[in-house]
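=== Per-residue structure ===
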Amino acid sequence: MILSKTQRIGAALLFGIAFAIWLAVALYPHKQPDRTPPSPVKQRTWEERKDSMRRADSVRYAQWAAERQQRYDSFRIADSLQRQEWKRIRKQQYDSFRLEDSLWRDSVGWRFTKHLKKDTVLDLNHCDTTELQYIRGIGRYTAMQIIRYREQLGGFYSSAQLTDELLAKLRLDTVLSHFTADTTAIQPLHINVATVEQLQRHPYLRFAQAKAIYTLRRKRITLHSIDELRTLPELTENDLQRLAPYLSFE
């Protein structure tokens, strides 16, 4: 096979390039890797740098984790407060709607078609919720509130107590003629043995008044009559008149 002049020149150039590469590789000195161990000073310096980097990374991670936890806690607290406020508003609205609905149903006599006669009188200290609901103007919710208030008082001594501030929303002034109160069923409040907490639970006593009575009893050891309570500035004559049927000095 006869090569042309151009082919011969190209082959010569390729051969020359290959020879030059081989000669450069053969003659260029190869640097052997340094396998000698580092000096103790360098090793210690390197270890200190690694420890410093690890500590810095640990501190940065701790700060990042603390910030994330703080943000999470703040979001959770805010969400919890929003939920509590929403539940409070919803409960308030529900109670308001339930009270209005109950009063409206009571006013039109929705629940019961049978009612007691106009001249029928119930004893507030012995009737139950069922008997109360037979009177026009009193439904289940209103009856439950009356019974609950009776338990807080320890019993009624007058039907006029149905107009107290705790029952004012029920508007019971129109049904007072249907009730009377057996005062013998009242559970007395034993002044000489009751604690501040027990005194405060009574609807007619505030905390300051209960504490004043308790302090006076401790000073005098035993109280004998309601006249001794008149020395307390926390109790007015009106307060003593309301409390008189419930006080026992035995």
